[in-house]
Amino acid sequence: QVQLVESGGGLVQAGGSLRLSCAASRIIFSIWTMGWYRQAPGKQRELVAAITRGGNLNYSESVKGRFTISRDIAKNTVYLQMNSLKPEDTAVYYCNADHNPLKYWGQGTQVTVSS
Asked: Distance of CA 21 to CAs 5, 35, 50, Å?
């Protein structure tokens, strides 16, 4: 019943920007921790950024200063603004909603950064 739908992925040159969106349904969005994860070929899925119900932010060290997570409560949508993209950022990006012990995932959106 819970659905997370990502959008905004694509192909971009190094140094460019993308904005990912995740629209959530069937949850009270504002009380869940929302996060973005990514999985590159041959690697484990890793946390990129998260925002808690209280608005606290967490970022992977590799994206600090370049990526920003935010949410629009009225639209039930969480965003990931990605600036200064690097080829190493290439991965499938997944939206996550967490309310321990429950965890839901979106289908993912591909981000490819060319050299």
From this structure: 8, 11, 13
At which residue do the structure tokens 């920003």 appear? Answer: 68
List the end-to-end C-alpha distance of the chain, in Å, as a whole number: 40
- CA gap 77, 23 in Å, rounded: 4
- How much is the pLDDT for 29? 74
Widest pairwise Cα distance in the chain: 40
Mapping DSSP onto H, E and C, the string for 54-113 reads CCCEEECCCCCCCEEEEEECCCCEEEEEECCCCHHHCEEEEEEEEECCEEEECCCEEEEE
How far from the centroid of its chain's Cα atoms is residue 49's Cα? 7
Q: Give residue 98's Cα distance to chain centre.
A: 13
| 3-class secondary structure, 27 | coil
Per-residue pLDDT reduced to its tens digit, 50-71: 999 889 999 999 999 999 999 9
Measured distance CA(73)–CA(23) in Å, rounded: 11
